[in-house]
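testing teh design pipeline on a random one, pls ignore if ur not involved
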């Protein structure tokens, strides 16, 4: 069956109706574009402001920039959703939000460990449980913090190796920071002979330790006799030092204390005895 030709009047009417629809819809398009443009400029302003704010609070520059960029992207996405609603594209808005939710869920399951380490890195950078240059011990690693990255923290051990520890493992486990107070306690165990003057040994050891560099007078060094050993009466001497971030200062002061106590004991005739083992021989009956 042949189609009836469209008359000029019908074509004019349809064109006029289409033009009227476009004219009626044009303000919505303009408002939608305006919403996107406003969201874009607000996002840029927020990113600059957050960059300045977060860099004052977060040591890691990369994390600070990432936080600012993420907020800016969220603002732009909100602007796009508003624009779609202005255009009365409710189905498109629903599809976008549903798709974003599904994608986010899939990424979340696939990158659980990465996300955990990333979030832990942000928490470490903002709360600052330790800082770059601190001497720490965690997860069996003892060394100086060299860098705090998005996913892991770099620690240089005292033997020179660079160890990368996932931020999640640091945040969820025990961490010892030897630099936070700037001082450390040194403990030494010493023994003196049974026939020596214990008070003289105590006074001598405390005096020698108190004269060392980096040793604090408050709290003052302390000494306690702890036990009757097999060949000596043993005591523990404890003193605090200014250590800062240096393990070397701790070790050198401990070494100096050992040498100083030994020399002073030798000068005053105080004996640090060797372990003694007595072997009793029996004659055989023949």
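output:
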């Amino acid at each position: 069956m042949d189609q009836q030709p469209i008359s000029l009047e019908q074509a004019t009417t349809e064109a006029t109706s289409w033009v009227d629809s476009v004219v009626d819809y044009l303000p919505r398009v303009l408002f939608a574009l305006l919403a996107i443009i406003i969201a874009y400029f607000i996002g840029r302003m927020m990113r600059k402001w957050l960059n300045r704010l977060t860099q004052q609070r977060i040591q890691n520059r990369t994390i600070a920039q990432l936080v600012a960029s993420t907020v800016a992207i969220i603002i732009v996405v909100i602007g796009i959703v508003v624009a779609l609603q202005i255009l009365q594209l409710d189905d498109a808005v629903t599809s976008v939000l549903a798709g974003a939710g599904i994608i986010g869920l899939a990424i979340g399951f696939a990158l659980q460990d990465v996300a955990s380490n990333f979030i832990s890195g942000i928490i470490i950078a903002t709360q600052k449980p330790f800082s770059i240059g601190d001497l720490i011990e965690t997860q069996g690693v003892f060394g100086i913090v060299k860098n705090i990255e998005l996913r892991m923290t770099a620690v240089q051990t005292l033997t020179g190796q660079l160890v990368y520890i996932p931020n999640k493992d640091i945040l969820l486990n025990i961490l010892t920071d030897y630099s936070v107070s700037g001082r450390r306690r040194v403990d030494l165990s010493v023994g003196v002979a049974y026939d020596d003057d214990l008070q003289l040994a105590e006074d001598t050891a405390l005096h020698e330790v108190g004269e060392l560099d980096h040793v604090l007078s408050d709290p003052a060094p302390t000494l306690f006799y702890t036990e009757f050993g097999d060949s000596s009466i043993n005591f523990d001497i404890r003193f605090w030092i200014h250590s800062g971030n240096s393990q070397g200062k701790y070790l050198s002061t401990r070494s100096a204390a050992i040498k100083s106590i030994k020399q002073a004991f030798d000068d005053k005739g105080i004996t640090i005895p060797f372990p003694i083992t007595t072997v009793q021989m029996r004659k055989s009956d023949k």
